[in-house]
Amino acid sequence: MAARASATIALLVWLAAVVVPPLAGPAPASELAGWLLQPLRPLVGAAHLGHGYRFFAPNPGPGHSLLWTMTMPDGSTRNGRIPDPVADRPRLLYHRRFMVSEKIAVLVPPFGNHGLWLAYCLFAVVRAATLVFRYPRLERSLTRA
């Protein structure tokens, strides 16, 4: 009986973690839903259940683009934009790069231009950590082939 009650409670908590985040945002949202979401935030974050409803909500506001200029050794310059709606094809690639620029934009206002460097450094650290764990397996798979 205790196992059944525990399973029922776990299912109800999971159902709440799935249903409450869309109700708690975007604005105008119920204060009750926001209050209900507070104790569920660790579970919602750990299970990646916060699906970015605020981003795709009505009137999400303008997106962020990164405009860059690079000076080449011969003195010429190259310009670009991330995301670039013309060069980033298929549309999924554009969407991925748009998400990267949005994540970087979160860091830029609090840190100024240093936020861009911080974002790049975080990316490099995460990429290095990923390679440390995955490279040996990748290397073994290539030598077998």
Protein architecture, described:
- Helix content is 60%, strand content 8%.
- It has 5 helices and 2 strands, in the order αααββαα.
- The mean pLDDT is 81.
- The protein is extended and about 75 Å long.
- It has 145 residues and is mostly helical.
- It folds into 2 domains: 2-46, no CATH class; 66-144, no CATH class.
- State the oligomer: single chain
What's the β-strand tally? 2
Mean pLDDT, rounded to whole units?
A: 81
What is the CA–CA distance across the termini? 54 Å
- N to C succession of SSEs: HHHEEHH
- How many DSSP helices? 5
What percentage of the residues does DSSP assign to strands (E)?
A: 5-15%
> Could you give the order of strands across the largest sheet?
1-2
Low-confidence stretches: none
Number of domains: 2
Percent of residues in helices: 55-70%
Structural class, from secondary structure content? mainly alpha
What's the main sheet like? 2 strands, antiparallel
Layout of helices and strands:
Elements lengths: L1 H22 L7 H7 L3 H6 L19 E6 L5 E6 L8 H21 L2 H31 L1
Antiparallel strand pairs: 1-2
Q: Would you summarize the structure shown here?
A:
The protein is mainly alpha-helical and 145 residues long. The protein has helices spanning 2-23, 31-37, 41-46, 91-111, 114-144, and strands spanning 66-71, 77-82.
